[in-house]
Design a protein that fits this description.
The complex is a heterodimer of chains A (81) and B (198). Chain A is mainly α. Helices cover 68% and strands 0% of the residues of chain A. Chain A has one domain. In chain A, α1 packs across α2, α1 runs parallel beside α3 and α2 packs across α3. Chain A starts with a helix and ends in a 9-residue tail after the last helix. Chain B folds into two domains: 86 residues, Rna Polymerase Sigma Factor, Chain: A, CATH 1.10.1740.10; 87 residues, Winged helix-like DNA-binding domain superfamily/Winged helix DNA-binding domain (Arc Repressor Mutant, subunit A, Orthogonal Bundle), CATH 1.10.10.10. Helix content of chain B is 68%, strand content 0%. Classes of the chains: A mainly alpha (81), B mainly alpha (198). Chains A and B meet through α1, α3 and α4 of A and α1, α2, α3, α5 and α6 of B.
Chain lengths: 81, 198
Amino acid sequence: MSNDADCEKCEELLQGYLDRDLKPEEVLVAESHLDGCEYCRRRYRFEAHLRRYIRTTAVERMPAGLMAKLTELRGPTAEGL
Amino acid sequence: MSESGAAEPEEDAGRRIANEARERVRFEEEALGFADQVYRVARRMVGTREEAEELVQDTYARAFRSWRSFTPGTNMRAWLLRILTNLNTDRGRKIQRTPDQQPLEESDYYLANRLAAVEGEQALDQEQVVERLSQGGVVNALAELPHDFRDVVVLVDLGEFSYADAAQILDIPIGTVMSRLHRGRRILKKTLAEETLT
């Protein structure tokens, strides 16, 4: 069973839950609420998917050529060892 | 003992120099191994590709100069990012940006609720629903975050640094990392809702 106050509490805990940064007793509160509340469970899934999406879409690989420029910055002793 | 006093025998000096050179080469190689990861974080902390490239080059130039101050066995990726964020902050101060306005954030569920209103509650069950936000939408929303928030969000959510590492890199208390992260994510979601769902 859930009510608005429980959902509010769950919303408050959800980011920490996703970050694995809750105290054990808070994990218990979040998980027992998520078990019984489809509304929050959907939002939990959404938040997890959103994080993955942000991480993968916002990533831009290093441009070709930058590595060569960085290698040139190395100290004079880099060769012959 | 001998007349030469504390002076090192030539042979030992030669060995010491060679050892140090080897250590330095090892350091440089390890650091270069993180270049792509460093770039990825840099790219989202600044506005353009060119700025990111420049920032990464400045970071490596400084890192190679001050390699002796790195403690072997500690987190080199975090060490490099610390240099990078310091350089970025110095640069930011020189450019003298306008003081950040602190945008209002909405609740944590705001974006999910907005999406549910547009696409239906069941849509939230599908992973593809996030694609509605689009890559461009995500990149823009990150770019629009005030930089104090952006730095933390980029380090933790893109760079996958721990709160503790982010605190060390940015030289701020861990509690500040957490509050900026939470607020930054909310602002990000509000921007995404406003810019991609209207």
